[in-house]
Amino acid sequence: TTGPSSDPDSPSTLESVQDNPDGGCHIYRNGYYGSSIDVVEGILEVNIIQMTSIQMTESQAENSLVDFVVTCQGSLPTDVCTVVSDPTCQVSKSVVCDPIVVTDECLLTIRRAFEEPGTYCINITLGDDTSQALASALISVNGGEST
């Protein structure tokens, strides 16, 4: 393959040279190519603005439920993933991903269950077809109460 044409007035030209195994002839192909770049805004920022423990009766207290109120800037997300890890954020305990529909303003509530009391690292990732953004927090779950 040879380089682009040296004519500064013409669009980029690509010449291709291939060997013909039958007779040692060469095939020359000339043509033009073009490309375009689409710039998308993407999800720029995610913030966990509130964490609220859901009070349940003793008969329902198998798991502690926590609601996370999340906001974002930029384009609207189409899915949310929550990773629950140990307090150092190194060992993942569970991963939950769900599709979401955000219509106007990026403000959503995500409810997650915790099987036992303890301190956890929470990573919430919002994504769409072209971008992802992440927010992290430490949460202490105490048998139905969180801080």
TrEMBL record:
One of its GO terms (molecular function) is integrin binding. Residues 1-22 are annotated as: Disordered. Pfam families: PKAT_KLD. Residues 1-12 have a biased composition (Low complexity). It comes from the Eukaryota. GO terms for cellular component: plasma membrane. InterPro entries: PKAT, PKAT_KLD. One of its GO terms (biological process) is cell adhesion. Residues 71-121 form the PKAT KLD domain. This is QNR71 protein. It comes from Sylvia borin (Garden warbler). The lineage of its organism: Eukaryota, Metazoa, Chordata, Craniata, Vertebrata.
